[in-house]
Automatic annotation (TrEMBL):
Gene Ontology CC, one term: cytoplasm
InterPro entries hit by this protein: PUA (IPR002478), PUA-like_sf (IPR015947), PUA_sf (IPR036974), RlmI-like_PUA (IPR041532), SAM-dep_methyl-trfase (IPR019614), SAM-dependent_MTases_sf (IPR029063)
Protein name: PUA domain-containing protein
Keywords, comma-separated and alphabetical: Cytoplasm, Methyltransferase, RNA-binding, rRNA processing, S-adenosyl-L-methionine, Transferase
Main location: cytoplasm
Organism lineage string: Bacteria, Pseudomonadati, Campylobacterota, Desulfurellia, Desulfurellales
Entry superkingdom: Bacteria
GO molecular function: methyltransferase activity; RNA binding
Organism: Hippea maritima (strain ATCC 700847 / DSM 10411 / MH2)
Keyword presence, Electron transport: no
A Gene Ontology biological process term: methylation
Amino acid sequence: MKEVLLNHKGFDKIKNHLVWIYNKEIEKLQGDIKNGEICRLTYKNNTAAIAFVNPSSKITARVLSFKDERIDRDFIKRRIESAIKRRSHIKNTNSLRLFHSDADGLSGLVVDRYSDNLIVSFDSAGVDRLKNEIIETLVELIKPKGIYKKDNPIRKKEGLTIESQTVYGKIDNEFIVEENGRRFTTNLKQSQKSGFFLDQRDNRLRVSHYKAERVLDLFAHSGGFGIYLNPEFAKFVEISADACSKIETNCSLNGIKNYKIINGDVFDFLKNETETYDMIIIDPPAFAKNKHAVKGAFKGLKYLLTNSLNLLEENGHLAVFSCSHSIGFKQLLELSLSSSIAAGCKLEVVELLKQASDHPYMLNIPTSLYLTGLLLKKIT
């Protein structure tokens, strides 16, 4: 096994069980290391960890184990078995995330299960090199009807090509996600993410505990929040025409009768909206995919919050989310405070929200907390 020599900064990260080592935290690569090759990380001639190493990536090393052990088929099987066991408590759904990259111990591997369909992403050069062993292990342990490999654009940063395809059996094209008594249609091959926003499952349920008569669901995507709330009237705003069509279907599937779907830009919609609501959901796409985009994201979120608060009735609730690690609870709280001042109201923090438990947040992996949210109550 080839070696990678860490500098003191890299070794300090390993001591704190941080799993991403950047190129500036490496002293030297020993030998001709191929992208995604498994190597020992060493410091002063001692093994510190075993990792995927990719000289072409800014994230040069992705730790697999803090012990000196073999990374083979048995290792892969143990990690996947452990991930399955961690999710045994999740009930009332036919769809969940089965493996969540670094948080489950194989950096770059994402597996989502839709009944007997598996959607798999190999987002690092390391797991891409092991994809055949991973697929064979998934077939052995889960016995799915089919496995579809969905390639994400992030693969380009790892020097990988993008070519989504079925790699085992046959995949359902149209699929009905069932969760907590609700039903949602999705296209497993063509939809965003792996087919559905599974990470918001717990939040959809928690928000639905606060009954509302009039709901405004912004960036509605599949209409999940508005449908869960089952209000007297729901208005969905979504820029994607295809998503709007799915909202229509999902309303029918769940018996939602009094609703309106706006196919348009949320920012433009808020400029002209005058109706009021007692529940507003703001669930935008990632405005800040890196730290350089944070300033613009702050501006966009403040616009959304301030204008939504102006449409929110007294004692009404507002849920706002960020799906970027760069904007977490602290930043959302600061934005909510400044927005409430601009809107001339007070806000009570009712609940702190995060991604569902099948997308685990590990303390030693800060980036694994990527979805945060607040449920707020307007006090005038």
